[in-house]
Task: inverse folding
């Protein structure tokens, strides 16, 4: 029997929700005894009280991670044994897919079909892929002649702090945890205060898979307390962060104020989607543009929030785009028919509505949406919103909104489109639609972005790197390139005597 809204709500009511921190293999309350409410954005109702960790709890978690690292229970474990445990964790994630998906939707407001069929399977794939990498990455020997031996080894950095956002709570966590654990580090994970539930459940599954105590610790809490404490901690060797550019800059400052820990950032974006005059399939491009901004309620770092249309195809394209917007009206996140769910919390909803007001004030033309929706639900919903007649100087075209708000800009020449696209301090992703292979390659080379899609949007694979240029961050998630963030290179030179 296929799942329905009613069946999901029945299962959700039976969920066991864990709100305590997970430190050194045990669920514990915050030392202060303080908690914060976990509010479901679909209804605005509190579903749990979560431990509000602060610097004291962070100290305890980092100490546990350090002990586990120095003891060698994980860092010195053979590659095949680390591989076996992470593969088992991947299996457990899939076995508990229904529970994890419901927790994700309850906590963050995304449609249950996305949680169950996209997010959680990708989390399992991430752990399995990096597990398989463990015994396939070789160290090096330098070509220094017969009288010497120069060995180049990769060693885990030590204690890694993973600070992750609320838009893809478990997936973003896996992008940090899987490579960091694969190379032998111990980790302290700080989930966003808006969405801590799946991270806390993952810790238990990792223990069941055989991960030793202290290797993975989870400290929920407010960013200005738990996050800052991790950033300033002198016994944290590395921070992997995904979130806003504003907070990413703070972690760079924390590093300089403490032990010069390395900081890897995946920050915001203002992705341009360029549709050239010769686009071979306007229907496919319009569908991709719609999903590029309305998927996950627009709460995506690489959301295609700037649509650059050639003037010759603008009108038919916008007609198709508006049709997709009508099909993607927000609904109950637990309804399998819902394509767009709730904004993560009231603060973010008000922020997005504020940007919509700024679009009006600066003269952009609203052609779809623009209002709060489902006000009788108690939750936080916004209609798919499209502004036309936008120029690149407007606030809605320059700042990351992180909601279902699309700015439409017009161009007449390819070089003009490239100039507009690059006129931003972000550089996470970009897309171009054209049937001209030369124009496609020339445009892709000219776009200052870490990821460029041609005749598609938001496609990729765990084997391909993800990350940005400019103020969108540094370093890469996914692919073997991610593993390099969490290792140190050691060169050992041996003089050989006859």
Result:
């Amino acid at each position: 029997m296929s799942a329905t809204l009613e069946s999901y709500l029945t299962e959700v009511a039976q969920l066991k929700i864990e709100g305590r921190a997970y430190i050194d293999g045990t669920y514990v309350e915050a030392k202060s005894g303080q908690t914060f409410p976990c509010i479901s954005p679909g209804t605005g109702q509190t579903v749990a009280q979560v431990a509000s960790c602060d610097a004291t709890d962070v100290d305890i978690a980092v100490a546990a991670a350090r002990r586990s690292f120095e003891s060698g229970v994980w860092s010195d474990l053979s590659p095949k044994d680390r591989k076996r445990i992470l593969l088992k964790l991947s299996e457990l994630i899939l076995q508990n897919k229904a529970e994890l998906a419901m927790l994700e939707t309850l906590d963050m407001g995304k449609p249950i079909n996305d949680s169950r069929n996209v997010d959680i399977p990708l989390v399992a794939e991430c752990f399995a892929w990096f597990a398989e990498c463990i015994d396939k990455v070789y160290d090096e020997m330098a070509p220094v002649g017969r009288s010497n031996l120069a060995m180049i080894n990769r060693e885990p950095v030590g204690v890694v702090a993973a600070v992750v956002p609320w838009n893809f709570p478990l997936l973003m966590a896996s992008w940090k945890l899987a490579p960091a654990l694969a190379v032998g580090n111990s980790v302290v994970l700080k989930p966003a205060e808006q969405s801590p539930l799946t991270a806390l459940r993952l810790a238990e599954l990792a223990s069941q898979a055989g991960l030793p105590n202290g290797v993975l610790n989870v400290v929920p809490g407010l960013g200005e307390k738990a996050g800052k404490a991790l950033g300033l901690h002198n016994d944290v060797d590395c921070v992997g962060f995904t979130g806003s550019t504003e907070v990413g800059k703070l972690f760079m400052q924390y590093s300089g104020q403490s032990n010069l820990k390395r900081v890897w950032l995946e920050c915001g974006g203002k992705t341009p989607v360029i549709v050239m005059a010769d686009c071979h399939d306007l229907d496919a491009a319009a569908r991709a543009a719609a999903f590029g901004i309305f998927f996950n309620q627009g709460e995506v770092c690489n959301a295609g929030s700037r649509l650059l249309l050639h003037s010759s195809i603008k009108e038919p394209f916008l007609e198709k785009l508006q049709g997709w917007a009508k099909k993607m009206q927000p609904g109950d996140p637990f309804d399998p028919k819902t394509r767009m769910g709730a904004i993560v919390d009231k603060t973010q909803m008000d922020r997005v509505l504020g940007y919509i007001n700024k679009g009006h004030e600066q003269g952009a033309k609203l052609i779809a949406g623009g209002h709060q929706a489902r006000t009788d639900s108690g939750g936080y919903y916004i209609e798919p919103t499209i502004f036309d007649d936008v120029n690149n100087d407007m606030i809605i075209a320059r700042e990351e909104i992180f909601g279902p708000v699309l700015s439409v800009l017009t161009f007449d020449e390819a070089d003009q489109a490239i100039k507009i696209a690059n006129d931003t301090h972000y550089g996470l992703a970009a897309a171009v639609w054209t049937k001209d292979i030369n124009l496609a390659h020339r445009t892709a080379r000219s776009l200052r972005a870490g990821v460029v899609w041609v005749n598609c949007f938001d496609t990729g694979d765990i084997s391909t790197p993800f990350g940005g240029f400019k103020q969108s961050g540094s370093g890469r998630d996914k692919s073997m390139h991610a593993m390099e963030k969490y290792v140190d290179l050691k060169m050992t030179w041996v003089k050989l005597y006859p």
